[in-house]
Structures are given as C-alpha cells and as structure tokens.
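Summary for the funding panel

The consortium committed to producing paired sequence-structure records for every protein in the target list. Below we show the first two records in order, beginning with the earlier of the two.
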Amino acid sequence: MITSKHRAFFIIITIFCNSNSFTSTYGNTTFCHRIEKQALLTLKQSLKLNSPALSSWNTTNSNCCTWNGVVCSDPTGHVHRLHLSSQSLHGNINLSTLPHLQHLRYLDLSHNQFQGAIPPSMARLKNLEYLNLSNAGFHGEIPRTIGNLSSLRTLVLEGSGQKVHGLGWLSGLVRLKHLNMNFVDLGKETNWLGIINALPRLAELHLRGCNLLSPLSTLDHVNATSLSFLDLSRNELASFSIARWIFRQGSLRFLDMSRNYIEAHIPSASNATKLQHIDLSWNKFSSVIPDWIYLCQDLKFLYLGNNFLKGTISKMVANLTSLDTFSLRYNKISGEIPSEITSLCTIRILDLSVNNLEGNVSNLFGSMSHCFLKAVATWRMRENKLSGHLTDQFGEFKKLRFLDLTKNSISGVIPGSLGKSSCLRRLWLGFNKLSGELPISIGKLSNLESLTFGRNMLEGVVNETHFEKLTKLKYLFGSGNNLSLKVCPDWIPPFQLVEIGLGSWNLGTASEIPSWIHELHKNVSVLDLSDTGLSGEVPIWVWGVSKLNLSHNHFHGEIPDFKPWGNHLVFPYYRRMYLSSNRFSGSLPRVSYDTIELDLSNNFLSGSLSHFLCDAIDDTYLLKILHLGNNLISGEIPNCWMKWSSLEYINLGNNFMFGRIPSSIGLLANLLSLNLDGNKLSGQIPLSIQNCTKLVKFDVGGNDLVGKIPTWIGTSLSNLMILVLRSNRFSGDIPSSICHLSTLQILDISSNDLSGVIPSCVHNLTAMATSRSFEEYDGGGIQYSQVFDTFMESVSIDTKGLVLQYDTFLVLVTSINLSDNNISGEIPEGVTRLVELKFLNLSRNHLTGSIPRGVGDMRKMESLDLSRNSLVGQIPVSITVLSFLSYLDLSYNLLEGKIPESTQILGMDAFSFVGNHLCGPPVPRNCTTSRDEEEEDGDEDGDEGEGEIDWFYVFVSLGYVVGFVGACSVLVLNKSWRQFYFGWVERIWLKIYVYFTIKWVRLKKQIIRE
C-alpha cells in the first residue's frame, strides 16, 4: 500500500531526475531556467545603464534568481517577478524575448528613462497580473494590445507624454482591480465613463490630469459596484453631470474631484456615507455644505477649500469625530466656530482660513481638550473675524508646527506660554490688534523658522534675548509696530535670515542701516526698513536685494540701475523696489527685465522718461507697477510703451511733463490704472486708450486737455471704477454713454467748460446704488502688491470744502463732482436712486428747477454742495433724514421758505444758506411776516395804554393834515407849480429804478461767473 509519504518521495525524486532540463535545488537555493536567463541577458543588452543596478546580471552568476530585481517561484524556479523601478534604465527596450518569460506575473519598469512608445509585444505576457509603466519615459500612443492581458489585476500607465485614441481595449481587462492612467491624455475620449463602468471588479481608478471632459451622457446603471478609490482631479469636468454615477458607488472610500472648476451644487449622496477621504477643493461649488457629509462618521480627510460654499460648520464638527485633516479655506462659511472643534482628538490639520467665521478666541479656545492639544500639527484660521484674547493654553500644544491667525481682530497680549510650544516652526500672528510687549519666551522656540507679528500695536523693547535660541529662523516680519530694537553694537545674530521686516521700528541711535543686518546681507532676499528714520546713502549691497522697501525715510543720493537678481536659482523671486518718500535725486534708473514693481514716488528725481522707457535693452519687461508720481520729471511722455506690455499700474502724476498723451499707451492691454494728473499735458485723449479695456482707474485731471469727453469711455472702458477728468478744458455735453459704467464709484469732471444737461440716465450708475462691505475687498482699495502689503490705489476728492485723499477705504467711497462748469437744466430725479452716494457736488453751474424731493432717499450722503446755481422752490423736508450729512452748501440760489429742522441742519453754518430767501435756523432771519410783527406790536401797546389819550400824537396828526391840505391846494390852484412837482417826482423815480436795475444785473453776472 502506497502512503502519502511515499507519494511525496516519488515526486521529489522525479523533480530531481529532471533537473538537467529545468532547475536544481541545493539546500534552499532555487536555480532559474537557462532559457529565461538568456532572455534577461538579451533584455539587458538592449539597455543603456547609468548605474550598476544590473551588474549582477552576468554569465558569471549563473543563477538569475539571485539577480537584482528578479524574483523566482520557489517550487518551479520560473521568473515570477521583475522589480526594475528607479534603476536609471534608458534606451529602447528590447522585448523580443518576452515570450520566454511566460510565467512572469509581475513587471515594474516605472521611473526610468526609456525611449519611444510602449512595445506592443508586451501583450505576449499572457500571465501578467501586475504591470507598472508609470513615468518610465515612454511617450506616444499606448498600444491597444495591452487589452489582451486578460489576467491583469493592476495596470499603472501614469505619465505625461502618453495618449490614447479610444479606451475600448480596456473592456478586455475583466479582472482589472487597479487602473492608474494619471496624466495620460484622454481628451478625445467622450465615452470614458461608460467604458470604466463596464469593469465590474474595478476597485481603484486614478485618472488625474487626463484632460477629461464631462461625459456626453450619464449612466443610470452602475456595474462597478466594488469601486472604493476614485481620483478624477485636475481635469475639465466643468459640470457635475457624473455626480449620480459617482455617488451611487456605495463602497466608495476615497474621492478626489479637486481642481476641475465645477460650477454646481454639491449633490445629495445617501450611499456615500462610507467615504473616508473627500477632496472637492479648487472648484466653484456653491450653496451650503450638504448634510450627507455629516453622516460620514469614518471620514478622516475632508478638503472643501477654494469654493463658494456658505453656511455653518456646527453640525459637521459634532459628528465627524474621526477627522485627521479638515480644510474649508477660501469659502464663505459664516457663523461662530463651534467649541466642539477643540474636542477633536484625531485632528492633525485644521484649516479654516479666509472665511467669515466669528467668535471670541478667549471663549472658544480657552478650554481645549488634552487630546486636541496633543493631536494638532497645523492650525490655520487666517482672514476671519475672530476677536478676543489669546489664552495661556496656546502654549500647551505638543505637536503644533504651524499656527496661523493672521488678519483677524485678536487683541490683548501675546501669551508668554507660546514659548513652551517647542515644535513650532511657523508662528503667524500679523495683522491683528495685539498690544503689549513681544514676550521674551519667543526666544526659546529653537525650531522656529518663520515668525510674523507685523501690523499690530505692539510696543516696548526687543533685545538679544528675544532671539536667543532662534538658530533656525529664516523669516522675520514685524513691520508696523511701535517697537524699539536695542542690541549691542557688535551683536552677532544666531540666525541667518532670508527675509527681514522691521518697518516703523526704532532701530537705535544710529541713523544708518544697523551693522548686524550687514552681516546677514549675503542671504537676504527681502528687506523692509520703511519708516525707520534712516538716512544717508544706501549701501551698495542693499540694491541687490530682490524685494526692497526703504520708503518714508531720509535716504539720499542717486539710484543705480537695477540688474537681474543674481540668486534667482536659489530664491525664484522677482524684483520689487519701494523707495518712495525719500530724498533720492538724479535721473531715473534703468530696470531689469525681472523687476515687476517699482515705486519711486515723492522724491526729487528729474530728467525725462525717454532713457527709462525707450533705451530698454531687453525685448520685453515684466514690470507691472510703475509709480513715479510727485517728482521733478519733465519733457514729453515718450511714445515707446511697446516693450512694457505687462504694466498694470502707471502713475506719472504731479510732475512737469507736457505734450500729448502718446498713443502707444493703448498697447497696454493689461493696464488697470492710469494716472497722469497734475502735469501740463495738452491735446485730446487718444483714441487708442479705448483698447485698455481692463482700466479700473483713469485720472488725467489738472492738465490742459481739450475736446469733448469721448463717448467710447462709457462703452470700451466698462470696468472703470474711478474716472477723473477735472481741471482741464473739456467742452461739449456730458456723454450719456457714461451711464453704461455700472462699476463707476468716483466721477469727477469738475472745472471744465462742459455744457448741456446732466444725463437723465445717471441712475444707471449702479455701483453708487449698491451696498458694499469693507471685508469684501481684502483690505480695501485697489491693492496690487502683496509683498509688503503697503501699496494700494488712492485718489483725491474735493469734498466737504476740502481736498481729501482716500486709499485704505477707497472701495467704500462713492462721489460725483460736476462743479464749476456751464451745465444747465434741472437736477434729474434719478440722482436720488444712487442711495449709496456719499459725496455730490453740482455747484457753480446754471442748474434750474427745484431740489429733487427724493433727496432724503440718499441715506449715505455725507457731503452735498448745490451752491451758486439758480435753484428755486423750497428745501425738501426729506433732507432732514440724512443722518450722515456733515457738509451742506445751498448758498447763492433762489431758494425760499423755511429751512427744515433737524440735528444735522442745525449744526450747519449760516453761510451754507446765504444768498437765498430762506428763514429759520441756522440763518438769523425769522420766518414771521412784517404785518404779523406790527399787529403784535399794536396789541402790546393797546394792552399797556388802554383808555388813555396821547395828546402829543393828536396835535402832530392835525399839523400833518393841515400842511398836506395846504400843499395840495397850492398844486391844484397853481398849474406851473403842479407841472414842476410831478416832473421832479418822475425824474427821481426813473433814476432810482435804473440804478437798482443795473445793480441787480451786475450782481447776477458776478454770481454766474463765480
């Protein structure tokens, strides 16, 4: 009887006896087949090797199972797996011998530098279950023959430079579980969703960056019910039409739809509650966060940032107790931050930046749980509406590396306990309302690399102790505080700073740049020493800094030409130079092609612009901001703006330039702001300016320009927010096309020779009728630079009897000034629809009619000047509801009646109403008539002398009667006397009439001229 032991023995003997044609086993060593060994050697010979990765592949070592990257099957000795990833292999791979590797199940050629396309002969490996060709250097079309590898379970073809024409071949891979075609161009495949849906065993699908378009039709049935991982990020799925298919995948655990810019609501998905990873960031999703996300109790990663989501997060935080990463940054989430957020024990990354979240940090984060303090590594809350004080508990974090509370309204002191958070690498507290001193304990954060606390209200002294252990510090930004730096003259900093921001600090008794900064200059790429009281000439090394802010100091001397920044390979920064409000003189420097922001305003620079603009060496320049205002620059503006096509902001205002505006400015298609005010420019506005369709501000005030206001301003420059044409010699009517400027906030065309009437369509200036908030515009104004956060648009407005300059709050300013022209007609009633208008000046014109009754609807009005016109009627009673009105001038009109009473009106000066027929406070004239006064006096006299006769008045009256009768008798009886008397009376009357008539005419002409 043959037992199982005997059978095993016979099998071993059989294998051993056939070892001459297969393999031999000695101990535990497996030997490969000769034919497979030869196939591998042939494969090696076709390759070019940059490393000794395949040095073990040689004839000396006869056992290929021991070669690097080769794995053989223990029982049979056949080559089972080839691990050749990241071996620096390149060349055209020869796979002609692949049929000899029929037992190969695993092939990994990823991360090499092969050339040409993927060989179609790879389809001969019928038993392949795993094929990885990601980033292997292959390019061109992926062969359809790969669809013949019916045993494949994993296929990785990731890599740019590859493409396919149709995905139909995928239908043959019925056992496929893992498919990765990231960055393969699938832009021409319209039925990709249907093909993917036909793979019933598919569990992981990676189609990142494949140029996928939204499918033409969605599927009502789902075959790929086993799908657990889906990455469709970085495509062009503009609509969410595949949402029904995606969220029917009940087994889905991982979903990444980021960076598709999908415009839609996040759909309902009752079957998607098993998700553990959701990334829908960088799209355009709107509406509130859907409730089904709250039900994903196993959710660990949630990225919903960079969308337009609204609503609150209270429900979400209460249920998602397994969160590891939670990002809602750059949305419109509002409401208070729930206190439950500090009880999340697994949270590692928490990013709620740039929303409208509110709350008092003292209350919200004053009792954080111990597990929360142990878990959090990154906590970002920048640009919200947080208030309150930072508590000492902020120093109890165990793993916190990044704390960002920038741009909130947090007040109080910086807690000294922060010095205990030893893991901190980045501490950002800038742009708040923090006060008190900078705690010395900050100097204990030995791992700190970036420290920003600028734009607060800190005060006191900073010394060496504050930097004692900051040996890793590279970025220091403390500008905008009232701090004093007091260190030893020979102090050597323990750090090597790359960026230094000490603007508005007191840097010591010396007026020059401190010596310790000189010691760091080899590494410094950003330097902000603005408003520090420094003077003298700027050291040569400073001009080599990439981003430099020396504004508002007392530096003098000439500014050298800027050369391209030498360390652009180490720090890929562009040059930004802010040197305004100093005493620099000489001619303008030439700039390098990599300079993108240049502010030399408020200095004593002279000469012309020709060498700066026209003697340019490079073909194109990247300059975006050019501010040369308030200097001594003269000559004509040269007509050579062709090489400066990147310009977005130009300010040449308040110089001594003359001549015409050059037509080549019209070539600046990216121009947002053009300021040429306060010069001596002549001629007309060139037609080419209409090509600058992105213009937000156009200011040519205070020049000598002529002609009519171009009608194309209202049609071609449809984005204008600020239009200033004041103090020129423009004539003609105000073009009605200006009413098309729906974004216009400031219109100033005062002090010209304009005539005609105010356009009746003025109510179409909807930006002056639409409410806006300061928070909507990231700090207010039109802000261009994000380097030092100091450069923004500004404009001067003649209002309230003064010339006021607005910059920070410019976005909230609305103004119309048509004063000092020859405009006639009535004030259109549509003006009163501009309910957000704050400043209105129509003075010194020939306006007639009455003040619009609806003036009270303009509730935001702060300044109203209608003086020196010919307005008639009474002042509307509705003016009394203008609670913000602080300046009112209605003088020199033909207004009459009683002045309406209100707190604002009573606070006005009487000169605001002079030259009218008005009565009542604040003018001294009483509104009672003269007859009423006489009757009141008569009543009072009667009361005092009732029943008594004053004989003196009786005799005087009798004498008057006798004399009058005697004179009349003489005139009646004597004809010559009668003729002489009446002739004399007539002559006297004519003289009086002519005299007062001439006086009135002269007075009216003087009022009109004024």
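The next record, for a separate protein in the list, is shown here:
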Amino acid sequence: MSHFSRAPRLLSLVISLALIGAQTSSARTASPLPPLPSQDAPWLYKGSDVPHDREWYFGVLDNGVRWAVRNNQVPPGQVSIRVRVDVGAMHEKPQEAGFAHLIEHLVFRQSRYLPQGAAIPTWQRLGATFGSDTNAETTPTATTYKIDLPDASPATLDESMKLISGMVFAPNLSDSDIRIEAPIVLAEKRERGGTAERLMIAMRKMMAEGQPLASHVTVGDVETINGARQTTLRAFHQRWYRPEKVTVVVAGDADPRLTAALVTKWFGEWKGAGPATPDPDFGAPATPPGADPANPVGAAQVLIEPTVPRSLIYAVLRPWHEKQDTVVYNQGLMLDQLALSILNRRLEARARSGGNFLSARVDQENESRSVDGTFVTVSPLDGNWRGALAEVRGIIADMLDRPPSVEDIAREAAEMNVVFESQVQQRALLPGGKLADDLVQAVDIHETVASPAVVQDIFKQSMPLFTPQAVQEHVRSLFAGKVIRSLYVTPEKGEASPEDLRAALLTKAVPDERARAAQKPISFAQLPAIGAPSAPPEVRPTGMLDVQELTFANGVKAQFWPTKDDPGRVIVKVRFGAGWQAFKPADNAYATLGQLALVSSGEGQLGQEELDRISAGRKLGFDFRIDDGSFQFTGETRAEDLEDQLYLFAAKFAMPRWDSGPLLRARAAGKIQFSSYAASPQGVMERDLRYLQRGNDERFAVPTPQQLDKVTPEGFRQVWAPILAQGPIEVQVFGDFDSAKGMEALQKTFGALAARGPLQPATTKGYAFARPGAQPVTLTHSGDANQAAAVVTWPTGGGVEGLTESRHLEVLSQVFANRLLAAMREKSGASYAPQVSADWPIDLPGGGTVSASAQVTPQMVPLFFETVDRIAADLATRKIPASELALVTEPLRQQVARASSSTAFFMSQIEGATQDPRRYSQVRGLMADYVSVKPEELQALAARWLVKDRAFRLAIVPERK
C-alpha cells in the first residue's frame, strides 16, 4: 500500500495578469461523456481489504489494458499521464541485454503519429519541458513513459494521448533510427559508468547472486546495443509490448470521464500478436550449503576502489513473494518501520558519541520482485571495519536480545503520527504527477494505494499492537533469512579479504546497550526565554498579495503571510549575514564544515542529542545553507509547533553552543569524501569548477585532508560566532497559522533578541572571474579512460537592478541548450545530456555566469569547444527564429504559471526585500521577462556576454596510466 496517495485541491492564488502573464485552463468539456464503470471491485484492490481511494477510477479495456484516472488540480491546468509496460531488463535474453532501455529511447525517435525527431519539439510546443515534463524510465521490471502536460485542454489531451499511444504500441524501431539512437544510449552508459557502475554491479551480485537481477544491467552491453537490429528489436517489442501488460494512469485537472474515454479511444484498438509469453522466473536467494540456520553467512566480496570512501554492506535476504495487501499486512509494515526507527536512532546515537563508524543504518527493501532483504550499511572510520562492524552488530544484537522500552516505542510512534497527520492536512497539495507516480509504483510492487485518512486510521488501529514484545518479534523477523551476503568497498589493498569478512559475520555478536536512547523527555517550557517579549511591531503592507512586513524595535524585520492555501504547513526562513562574502580565503575549511556542523553544534541547553529529543512528536526543521550574499535557516513546521520552531532559530543567535563532536564528525566525513572527487569527471567538476570559475578564490576550494586536519573547535567558533552576532535579520513566516498567535510567537522569539550590531564590511565585493584563454585549463581524473568532461563559462553580471536581464539570459541559455543537445547528442552521440545554465547572484553587483558543459569521450573534447563557439557566435550574429524561441518560452510560461499556485514561490521571489524593497516590484515583471523577450534582445545579450575571448574553458580528462 502506498502511504502517499492524496486528494489535492490547492486554491490558486488570485494575481493580476501583469504578474502571472497568463491564465490556466481546465481540461474540461461540455460535450456528453460516457459514464465511468462501477468501482465496486477495482482491479488494483483485488484480494485486499484496504479501503479504496475513491478519488481514483479504475477500468480494464477489452484488450486487457488497465487504466486508472482521477481529477487533481495541483498544479492548476496540468494533467499527468503515465504509461507503464510490464517489461524491464530482467525480461531480456543474454543477446538482448539493453533492449528494453534502447526501445524506451527509440519510441521518442519515431512512431505512428510522430515523424523522425519530432517528439521533443512537439511536446515543447505543447508547453512540456523535455527531460522534466517529458521523460521515461526503464527498471529491471518495467518501462514507464511520463508526460506532464501543462495548460491541458480537451484538444491537447486528445493529441497527447494519441501521440503516446503510438509511441508505445507502434514505434518505428528501424535500422536508421537505431543507428542514431544507439550512440546516445552508449553515451548514457559511459556517463553513468565507471566506478558507479562497478559498485552497482557488485551490489546486485551481492544481493541477488544466481538470480536474473544480478546479471541484467538496465543500460545493457556495448556489444548487444551495437548489434541491435530492427528485426531483433521489433521481435522483442512484439513479445513484451502487449495490451495486457500495459497500465495507463492519468491524474490532473481534467474530468475523469474525459481521460477514461481518451484511454479507450487511443488504446482500445490495440491487439497483441500471437500468444502471450510467460514472464521469466526472477528466482530466489539460496541458502548456502551447510550454513547455520541461525546465522546463514554466504558469499562475501571485497572490492578495491582507490577513490571511493569505505563502505560495508551486509544483507539478510529472503525470497520475495506475492503478498495480500491487507490492513493486517500494512499494520505489520508499520511495526517494521517503528522497529527500524528505534534501531537507526541507536546507531546514530553511537556514531555521534565517538563510535568506530561515521554512520550506519538499517533498511528493509523489496528489490525488483527478486529479494526481500534487510540491509545494514556501515561507513567505517580509518579502515577499522572490524571494529565498526562489531559495534553495529552489537547494537543490533541488543535489540534482538532485549525488547525496546515503552518510551522508545512512544517516541517513534509520535514521530510517525506527525508524518501521517501532515499527509492528511496536506492532501490538497500533492501534484498530479506524484499521485500518478505513486499508483505506478503500487502496480510495480503489486500493492494498492490508500488515501492519507485511511493510512492514518490504520495507524491509529495499530497503536495497541505496538508493544515491546511485538516490536522485538518484528526485529527478529527482519534479521532472519535464507542467506547473509556482504560487500566491503575499500581504497586499500590487503585491508580485508572475503574470508575475513565472512569470519567477522560468523562471529557471535555481543549485545551492546550503550546506544539505548536517554528516556528523560525535554520540554520547550523548561528552556530559558530568548529575552523579554517585544512590543507589537510596526506593520505595513508590501503590496504583494496579503504579505505584510513587520519591523521590531530591535531591528529584526519579518515577512508575514498567514494563508489557508497551504493547509497544515508553515514555512519559516531566517536570512542573515553576508554569505560567502563573510569569509576570508583561509576560512574555507570552516565555511565548508559549517554547512554540516553549525546547526548540530547546539544552542543553549540543547546539544545534538537534546535537539533530537525535544523534537520528538513535533514537526520541526533546521536546515542551513550559505548563499552568495546571505546565510539562511529553513524549517517546515505546523501551526501548533510554530512558536517552538521560531525559538529554535532565535536561540541559535541568542545562545549559540559550540559542541566539538559535530565538528569533528563533519571533519572526518570531509576527509573520507575528498578522495572520491577524483574518481570521475563529475567529481572533479564538483570539487574544482566553482573555485576555478571564481578566479581561484580559496573560499570556494574544497578543503583538503591536510587543511581539515588543522581545523579546531576554537577556530570554528572564532569564524562562526561573529557571523551569528552581527547584521540585520529577516524572518519569513508563511502558511497555515493563526495571525495573532504567529505575531505573539515572533514577539517572544525574534522580537526578544538583543539589538544587533551592523554587518561588518565584506572581505570582498563580488567575485573575481577566471582568467579567460584560448586554451582550456586541463585537469585529470582517475576514473575510466573513456570518460571526460568539458566546460565553457562566460562572466555576466549580478544584482537586483539586473533581474530582467538575468531572466532573459535564462531564456538565451535554454535556446543554447536546445542547440547544443541537437549538436552533441542527436547528431554524433558525443554526449548524453549537455547542459547550459545561467547564474545571476541577486545579492551582489557581479559574479554571474553562463556555463555550457557536457560529459564526452576524451576524443570529443575539442568538438565540444568548437560546437559551443559556433553556437555562441551564431546567437550573437543572427536573430533566433520565432518558432525556435517559442519552444523555450512556452514551457517557461507554463512553468511560471504552475509555480504561481504555490505560496512558497512568491516568498522565494521576495527574499531579502526587507533590506532591498526593489525586490517587491521586480516580481511583477517575472512572466513578461520570460515570455515577451524579443529575438533582437537575446541577440544583443549574446553579443554582449557570449564573447569567445572572455570565456574560461575547462577540460577534465583521464590520467595517463
């Protein structure tokens, strides 16, 4: 049963046309429609007593196609279509490896209603962005085609259903199409290959040795992909693409009678050819010969990967089998979830207190209808994998040996209850695409969906079952299986052998009770006040909907928006300081570690453990990020917890704490992670690109292990304490809360802070830019020899006054991206997914960039630079044709229209406006800036910014070995 199926109905915000630029239209029709079939016994709920989600309507066509449709108005005007075919990589014969995935690509190439290469521009004309609104996915068990159609009307829905039906049951699959698409698939294999692919294959072998899952890689083999022909692919398609193996799911702002009728219209005439082929046997884990039933340790593997952090995984495996998705079955799942939550909390507590592992957790997964497994994942510190494994197994053994306490259970049950309550409250907010994906997932795992209210009701019915003995029984069942297999990944040869790993797992675990959680509850009422509550703030309207701006006597300002458009949810954001501008170059290690350790270093009486305990049964968040010109805390809460959420944020300023444990753990994580950057072109880009783009600015250099070794708790405090103590604070509070109570909570917390001193002048104003040059800067990686990457970056601007220009640059970048995709992906298969992006720091007068990048073979790096130069020069010298520009502006119009149904969208647009009121007025031109830009304006932008001699170039190529 899916626990996330909801019935959304979000009230669209009423905004002037000057703001949103367009109206959405509901895909309804006044013409008579056939009635929906009876829903007394829907196919999804066969054999289940889980109450039906009555907002879904189900049916089966005469040819066997199953369908499910529902109305959903989030985002307004959008309809999401999913077509799932019950064929994946495990349906392939050895000589067909990769065929399911290759066909997924080819159906977009050419089909009954789409001529050669027309799919992407066709969907773009309908307002769908390729890659996000239009996509597909192949897994070991299924292939799913996905369309999110914005601004849907009966006509565009009819056209979309026609197109996708032809793609599914009548693709061309010609030799000429295969010759074009096979290199693109191989580029995808190359970009996702290397170390990551080796680890995935090793994990599959460990998990499913002797089963099809172990040997069927979804992307396939180079030989079979290059050897694919229309005769073999068409035979594969005919064998598996049959009506009875297809499920069509539609959720969106349309009459379900209409969408059901369109499924019938376009899929009803499809006939399968010949008799159906039985599904292959996915097998089951086998018990090792002579194994101890109580500890059936089987195969172990040690994988040497010099650039990958240490990781140890062992799995207790059971055969996957069909289950009756009943209420009782779901109560068992909830008991499993509760038991694992207790166990994972104990593992986290041990890691924080100085264990031999950086992190560890236990998960239960049903993988690809092949195995039912309990997976234990451990990240050892400093190569002491034996000590780490012994500690983790000791904590698990304690859970197996002694039942958890009533307090343990109550804490985790309270956490679960918050989740289920939130899902009920926010059922009106879930997008149709998520609802459709959830139903597709339910079909894939052979389970059902249920409304949030039903899930919460089952949970409440289950509460009496949550006894210490029942939880212990479920833990024991999770660690009982037919075989235990293990995999250790390490950078060091000789550190372990398969025999060592097997011997460690065969050793009897000694129960370790040290990680049992402290039981004493903590209450916010016990904590000291931030200060004396302030007088009521000065209140003024912002002119943006019902958002008010509050000014407190201490200088804190807030943007305040109580609204019922976001039921059950309140968002709090706190913006302060100068962001990256606040750091000196020598502070780079402390800046990086602050993103991991600042929050967890505590506040007042609350260390990290106490922060967790005080949050039990509450909905509180505490995320932190560093932006170009500010720092930000963010938390999602609810009305009843709003005052406590505000207290947590305000206390970080009023009474910061500097516990060393979180810093030392973050330092260890940074050292472990560092070597992995060198393993691939993507890793080298993540490590070095921003540092290089910003003129070798040390603030943006990823700290080396040697730099991290010099980090001290006192040094951390010296860097971060002044940042928390100075400069103005802006608080955003928006969502479903009572205005008077929210105002009172602000007065007790942020209004009660002491007046803050002025923000100290930033170390630098803006950022330098990398030295341009005709020859690229060349870096190396230690991964596979067929992987490389290339980047071209041009400097642009920044600041609020240039926001219109920044939006035009986004349009220009997307036109550039479409051309680069056609040149590098479609014509040569040189790159799977080249990217072009624009960045414009709003808080700074400069520092913006436009960047084009791609992952390619080393031989293709010069081609990439030549192609980028050619496209940039053409954009600067010739106007973009109106038809080409529309392929970008129409999807952008739809994206902004969809975003305009979210309160969070508007609040993100006005962040910082309490300090710079120009940001309020800049929102009003948002839509027009994207959709009304003229070709000559884009040409002028390209001529100004995309200048060859001003570009910085980076090539990342493999090391010579």
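Regarding this second record: The CA atoms of residues 5 and 210 lie 36 Å apart. The radius of gyration is 29 Å.
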